[in-house]
Write the structure tokens for this entry.
Amino acid sequence: MSTSHLTDLIEVRGLEKSFGDQQVLKGVDFSAESGTVSVLLGPSGSGKTTVLRSLNVLETPDSGLVRISDASLDFGSPPTDKSAYRRAVKALRARSGMVFQSHNLFPHKTVLGNLIEGPVQVQGRDRDEAAAAARQLLEQVGLAGREDAYPSQLSGGQQQRVGIARALALKPEVLLLDEPTSALDPELVGEVLAVIRDLAAENWTLVIVTHEVRFARDVADQVLFLDGGVVAERGGAEVLTDPREERTQRFLSRVLDAG
Amino acid sequence: MRLTRPLLLLAVISAALLGFAGSASADEGDRPVVRVGTEGVYPPFSYRDQDTNELTGFDIDVVKAVAEEAGWDLKFVEAPFDSLFPALDSDRIDVIANQVAINPERKARYLFSTPYTYSHGVIVTAVDNDDITTLDDLKGRTTAQTASSNWAQVAKDAGAKVQYVQDFGPGVELLIQGRVDAIVNDNIAVLDYLATSGTDEVKIAGDAGDEILEQALTFRKSDADLQQQANDAMKALTDDGTLAKISDGYFGADVTVQSGSEDVDVEASDSRTTWEVVKDTAWPMFVGLIKGNIPLTLASFVIGMVLAVGAALARLSSSRILDWIARAYISVIRGTPLLVQLFIVFYGLPQIGIDLDPYPAAIVALSLNVGGYAAEVVRASILSVPRGQYEAATVVGMDYWQSMRRIVLPQAARIAVPPLSNTLLSLIKDTALASLVLVPELFREAQVTAAATTEYLPLYAMAALYFWVVCYLVSVVQGPLERRLGRYVA
């Protein structure tokens, strides 16, 4: 792990968040270098999804700092000017792409329509150029030729691969994946993990919330084990085979027994 | 009559919001344009000619002769009798030519010309009713009258209960059906009806008192000039025998002088068969549909949808003020009759300076109505779009309006089509009310001819048929539209 935060692509410091009177995040810190895969795991309610969703402000932390590349936002003392705040949120969001647990594809748009919606409508890119790039991405996720299908005509695994391609189409610096295989039938999990494996091999910077421990062992450069709203253990992939903390061990044995 | 301030304010804001501002102009060029309000359904005084479908009748001929003499250009506005006085008050017409009888209450509010008709009241009953022959016999009985007619007052003064009807013809139908006991009306109108309908089911049972009624052109208090010009013209027309000639043509007697009404001989104002009437009216009704109901429906639906989406988004917004405004709007629209809304916009708003022409007024009222009803449909449809769709739109970088326009509303539209089709069908049928704010439309044409010919069932059935055909065509389009909007659903 690097100690110099200047070379880190992602930096998170002192993240706190409460829902009502329940404090879900109690000061989360971590950083990630460019081109690395960070895996967030932990028992349900540990706050791992909230951390991920804080990175693109789908959740607004109560305090703490989030920086991705050159965009940062200090939620403890955000810009008082509303439009300056909105600009900062927008800039932060523009640095990342998001893959949801339940894909959230736009059902009324074709596969191609889903992929070019952001590039054309938001980034103002040329439609033909965006479509060409989208076709390339579809090929990359193994869905060449399906651009005219509607999401409802695809299997769950195909839908999730479109979801990944849609996130990549925005040309983000970081890809955030929120339990990308949890909603899938077991036989469809492999095809999605294969795509993510490829992305890791291509040196994409990934932050993944997942329960797939064996998969995480293969791809993780950094493992963050969250429990009770804090990072309970942090290390390389060895955390998954040889955890130091007892609660990490308990969690891993439970997950691996179940798997 | 004053309306309460909050209601007015709301109506003002709504009207201003829609950006309508119209005003009627009474003067153009050298000759003043005088707008004449008349029923068009009161033969032989004011009705449509069976061959030309042009407005004609004794009152029409008189006011035309007066205009010729006085140097006016005339513009006729047809409306139900009960709408004529509000129209005069709100400066939508300048004179009423519709056998308006002079009485003290009206004299206090309006100016009258020299009378041009002298008539007396008669009591009409079913032919087999021998119990009623004088006004005294009306005590405790039910009569059918037009609300703002002086005959309604005569009947009430005699102790009768009054059932209100829109004009004379429907009253006779009630009489034949045995739902009322009698009608009090002008002897000339009754004679015309008996001659035209050829009915042997009703009869003139006796005179309604011995009072002679005087009918005259009616003006606003502020239009003394018009009154003076009319009186000068009337005098000239009496002197050169023109009025007597017009009267003779209709009644075989001179009803423009006192004592003339006793010798009236009325010929039928319409002699066509039922089939001819239906055939002749089909085209005017179709024109009414094309020029009235359909444009009103299209404009009101489009504007209403914009209002509905706006109100739905306001209800869903985090702003409590917007939410409150939208709630108030929806509540007022859904909690008041469309008819009342139409009257407020058309007859009420001019009193605070917002003077809309008939079409814009009808569109404003109908749009506001549709918007209020559709807002909750749109809101429910928006709520049916999963939260994940908003999040997905957010993470591809869309702002609120982009995600609404590109992602949420297209999906909500699919959900909203079936209930909104109901709203559209209701709107099509509601446009039949527009004739009450002086917009010529299909049903008005049916009423006009029905009054002149007494062919109620065939004409109203044909009006119903027209509406049904249009609604059927709309429901035929609904299927393909639903499939088109739902093509992405597996």
Observations:
- The domain at 118-213 of chain B is CATH 3.40.190.10 (D-Maltodextrin-Binding Protein; domain 2).
- The two ends of chain B are 59 Å apart (CA to CA).
- Residues 45 and 57 of chain B are 4 Å apart (CA to CA).
